Amino acid sequence: MSIIYILIPIAMLFVSIAVVIFFGAIKSDQYNDLDREGMNILLDDEPDVSVPKKGTSTHDE
User: Fold this and answer.
1) Which one-letter DSSP state was computed for residue 51?
2) Per residue in 2-61, pLDDT tens?
3) What region, left, alpha or beta, does residue 29 occupy, with left being phi > 0 and alpha being psi -120 to 50 degrees?
4) In angstroms, rounded to a whole number, what is the distance separating the alpha carbons of residues 30 and 23?
5) Is 25 among the domain residues?
6) At CA 9, angle to CA 19 and CA 24, rounded to 5?
């Protein structure tokens, strides 16, 4: 039963740290543009280098 007297303050400390981190993220405008970041995963910016182009050889001659 005495462990509760230790666990409750630790839990309150964790919750207060999480609240401070959450409001810090909101204050730094991290959540302003959620649509753009969601669309970035759909865009293919880098060419696929695993497939060789036609007419090129992968062997060193």
Assistant:
1) S
2) 999 999 999 999 999 999 999 998 888 777 777 777 777 777 766 666 666 666 665 655
3) left
4) 10
5) yes
6) 15
Separation between Cα atoms, residue 30 and residue 10, nearest integer Å:
28
Torsion (CA) 32, 34, 39, 40 in degrees, nearest 10: 60
Q: Is residue 36 part of a domain?
A: no
State how far the Cα of 21 lies from the Cα of 42, in Å rounded to an integer.
Answer: 29
Answer yes or no: is 43 within a domain: no
Q: What's the domain count of the chain? A: 1
Please give the C-alpha separations between residue 2 and each of 12, 19, 22, 35, in angstroms, as whole numbers.
17, 27, 31, 49
Tokens of 55: 């007419």
- Tell me the residue range of the domain where 23 lies: 4-31
Residue 56 lies in a domain: no
